[in-house]
Design a protein that fits this description.
single chain; 364 residues; alpha/beta; eleven-stranded mixed β-sheet; globular
Length: 364
């Protein structure tokens, strides 16, 4: 039976004002579904779900979030449940015993958003004066309770400077967390509006080389980087096939970042739909760009990451913007070694993302 890794945002509410936010427009124009809608969907589709990561807004601002995760754990314990949080979750559970118990019982792993080692920079970037403290408190809590934890940060030119990379690895070491990087995606069609956050090819490659030398690359779960830059073997983009995103209004999209109406209007959890009936044909049988024909990675990379190609060019008929050949470089002969031996987290193969750790760190 085919099983999905599901990203699910239960609420549009967020207590931060991140300058890079990819979902702000969609969240401000749609309404949340209710607990009863979530339960009805999970009751119908639990057997098709391998894992759920709760993201998009700050889910812990919603009291029903805690009720739902306990419902899933008690009724469908084989589903792995994870949370991406800006750290506010700790504030929510520390003085509420029910929420505290629901969280510890139900959530298997947690992503904590932290982009800068510097407190003031992170707070300014997230538009929240408590952002850094919330993140650190959450990491400390997770370490205390032995929960699997990841520091997730947005990859753009400023966060990938060596001093910031070192600072994030230092925090990760202190709290026995791994690092996960999401390369920034410009969801706006106006690239000039997003230009300060668009990661340059040169900075990306330089940062990966630095991390490879000083720290450890666990995995490059990215169709381009994993196949062309590492010895990861065949890395696929499962967007729309084994991975889907459920937005707070119930719309289902093929990818975390493909959330405009073109992609999120086909299916909704209120349609009493079964996951086995969901098909995003353009991702099931993706186009390999003509310019990729006869490339030695034609069968593996196959043009690169779906959402990057669509967001940059509006089509899958062009190759990934981070392909070396798009950046005046040859395909690399030397590759990064990776240390992956098993599935790292719910995000491994859920969306294109990159995993790192300190050397000699034992994974949970």
């Amino acid at each position: 039976m085919k099983k999905f890794n599901v990203g699910w945002g239960l609420t549009n509410v967020c207590n931060m004002n991140c300058r890079f936010c990819y979902s702000k427009g969609t969240r401000s124009s749609t309404k949340d579904k209710k607990l009863s809608d979530w339960i009805k969907f999970i009751d119908k589709n639990h057997e098709y779900i391998d894992s759920i990561n709760y993201g998009t807004g700050e889910n812990s601002t919603c009291d029903d979030f805690f009720t739902f995760i306990r419902y899933v754990r008690e009724n469908y314990p084989d589903i792995t449940q994870a949370l991406t949080t800006n750290g506010y979750t700790y504030q929510k559970i520390k003085d509420n015993q029910k929420f505290y118990d629901d969280f510890l019982k139900s959530i298997d792993e947690v992503d904590v958003s932290l982009d800068f080692k510097d407190k003031d920079k992170h707070n300014a970037f997230r538009g929240q004066k408590n952002a850094y403290d919330w993140a650190i408190n959450m990491l400390e809590f997770l370490q205390k309770h032995g929960k699997k934890s990841t520091i997730v940060f947005v990859g753009f030119n400023e966060t990938l400077q060596e001093d910031n990379i070192d600072g994030l690895f230092e925090i990760a070491k202190k709290y026995n967390a791994i690092l996960r990087m999401n390369i920034y995606r410009p969801v706006s069609k106006d690239f000039e509006t997003n230009s300060e956050f668009i990661l340059s090819y040169d900075v990306l490659v330089k940062a990966l080389k630095y991390i490879n030398e000083k720290y450890e690359i666990i995995n490059l779960s990215d169709a381009l980087l994993g196949n062309v830059f590492s010895f990861a073997g065949k890395v696929k983009d499962f967007s729309g096939t084994k991975s889907i995103r459920i937005l707070p209004n119930g719309d289902i999209s093929p990818s975390t970042y493909l959330i405009d109406e073109k992609y999120r209007g086909r299916y909704n959890i209120s349609q009493d739909i079964s996951l086995e009936d969901i098909k995003f044909e353009e991702f099931s049988n993706p186009i390999v760009p003509e310019e990729c024909k006869n490339c030695r990675y034609e069968e593996t990379c196959a043009g690169g990451v779906f959402d990057r190609r669509i967001l940059w060019y509006g089509t899958l008929e062009k190759r990934d913007p981070y392909c070396p050949l798009n950046n005046g470089e040859k395909l690399p002969e030397e590759k990064f070694k990776i240390s992956k031996t098993a599935r790292i987290s719910v995000h491994d193969d859920y969306l294109p993302t990159l995993f790192f750790k300190n050397k000699d760190q034992t994974l949970k």
